[in-house]
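task queued by scheduler; priority normal; single chain, no ligands, no partner chains; default sampling; output format set to structure tokens
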Amino acid sequence: MKAMYCRKNNKTCIHIKGSGGFTLIEVLLAALIITTALVPIMDTFVRGALWTAQAEDMIVALNLAQSKLEELKNRPYDDLEAGEPLDPGHQPEPFPDYQEYSYRITVSESSASGRGENNIKTVMVTIYDTATGRKIISLTMDKGDWR
């Protein structure tokens, strides 16, 4: 790129070689290329942060469901469903230390022997997001009464 310097009074012009400036078009083109490259990279960071938050939510819900199943596993067979929100019409019960999560327990009985006597209870713990009511995870266990 060459620059030219001219005097008004004297009609002489001096050519200046190697003036290292950029034109407006070059600057705009460079900005466009950089923006085009950065948008997908920023989108990846945003999606990564969202996936991390969802994974954390899932891990907390999984641990709460496992904890509730362990608590139910230690109950006697006949007292398994006492005091839990079993009816699907009831609101899920919130966890005392994690108010943003709630749970519902479903208990069904079946027979393992085929003789008509109910001696297995299938217990399902479902964890919900309290604010949205969205189901996060469900865990199931079987508990038998082998008398």
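post-processing summary
- The chain has a mean pLDDT of 83.
- The radius of gyration is 34 Å.
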